[in-house]
Amino acid sequence: MSSNPSNIDDLIRSHNPFAGHIVVRPPQIWAKSFPDVPSINAHASNAVLEAVTQVRQGQRQVVGITITAEKGLGKSQIISRIRHRLQAENGALFIYMSKYDNLNQIKYQFLQTVASSLRAFGSYQGVMQWQELAAALINEVRKWNYTPQQYISLFPSWLNKYSNKVVEHLTDCVLQIKPSINNPYIVKAILWTLSSAHAIYATHWLSGLELTQTQAEAMVLPNPKREDREAEALSTIRQILDITSSYRVPVICFDELDVADADDNGFTAAQVIANLTKDLYNNLERGVLLLAMYPETWRDQVKHLPQADAVIDRLVSEQRDRQPITLNYLNSDDVLAIVFYWLKEFYEENQLSPPNPLYPFDENKLRDLGKGKPTIRAVLKWCAEHFIIPEPVIPPKDGKLPPRPPKHLVEPSFEAELANIEENIDVLSEENNDVIADALWSAFFALKSHTLEGITISTIEEIQANSADKGYIHFKIVGKENQEVIKIGVAVLQQSGGRYQGAALKRLINYEKFDITRGCLVRSNKINSGAAGAKDCIKKLLKKGGEWVLLQSQDIKPLLAIRAVLDNCESYELSEEEILDFIRQKRLAIDNPLIREILSAPSGQEPENLLDEDMPVSIPQTVSDSVDNIELNI
Prior knowledge:
six-stranded mixed β-sheet, alpha/beta, about 10% strand
């Protein structure tokens, strides 16, 4: 490693490892996280890990743990630490929820979270947690001991020899030894995840979403009914978690509960999740439930629930005093440790050896910072602001120093969020429909009073609809074009099921009912040839002057990133106006091809370069672990 002072100082001037990294985002929970200091608030993470051990050893059945801490003290860092420890130990399946977009359908949203969480890689390199579960099922029924990678390598030859009978046969074998499973299709879908060509469709179905008719028939899976999905979701969740708990301890974490949203009955996110956790506690065979929130959320919301005592007993079942575990503020030694670990990783990644482990910081100043008992967030923010090497003053030939343009206040946070999104290979997933719509809303909101593609934008409005019609059209853009009022209804529709596509498109072409003058479909995939109703609606949409706009990842990623900054503006200590100013200054909305295409005059044609959702899609495997062919004797 180089110890050249010039190289080190140049690196510090060009890259600040602390900038924009004061908020833990979901990608850090799942993949590479921030540098962790295991000794900080070890009492909290150790309590959860000990609970997992107790459940695994049969000493406890279900354990509920709640962590409370002020903003920035490190609740999400603790969850990230737990996740990475569990992943290394190969004894648990991890489920993480931090967004609560529809509190009125929380069970269905939680089912999607379960499915999404189990899509994450587990203890085997490049293998989904779903695939670990599928391998465990086969090993038990066949008395084998093969790895998930070996089954994945075997599945193409099995399907070639036996067709989909291989999954039918294995499903029957599982049901014979597990008669308590009352939904055989869940087992079947889990086993399908071992087929690279079918895995993405299997996890799609497991999340409660509809398949195309072609996919459903090929995998012999029934499509769910949209009107029943909330009622059926909790039963499906219990089945999945009970199957899971035979092999791994489910560890279910609910984070970011301190949002102000409420359901139609007036219950906040924390209260809704507290009640859901009570249901899970009462019905799971095994598991650890972890909630993280502010102290005031616990005091003012959870403790005021109807039958609060019954809820609290389950949320803090590990604590004899019936109180949550609290996190501590930092001291001077903690501050030094945090900075040491962050800088150690920073210099090692860049193959440089600094003059001292804390360079360019002064140890005494860091100790003074620790005397004020700061939060982790405050320390990282201080480091971001003070990670500076004075620029050398080299007078130019004309004697004038050119001004150095300062970075916009929002830029470090935007860059950090964009890097997080770049790591998410599934940004166009239908599970992100509402997230994508929110990102588009923010971009158009920043364009209010601007004229773009001939339209002067006045406002962005929600669609007024009854409960049966809600959620199909996400919002409308109201403006003027050639002195005429125009109202563009925007529907982000990544769903693959023909019934849902048809239901959404029927509403998008009903201009009168939803008070719009133009319908705009935002979608990346073709409409399946078997979805006759949906394809007919597309023809009507284009004939009525509507438009189908191609959704591409490169266009939506920056909008998703700035929306994430907006959602976390309080944590980033930024105002909404500062973020909107950044959007305008960096021209994130006005120069975005997707935004321009939504506003531009409709072409009357379906877009080119659409993805074909019926093409076999495989989830990439990074490990090949071949095995000689095994006969199933079907």
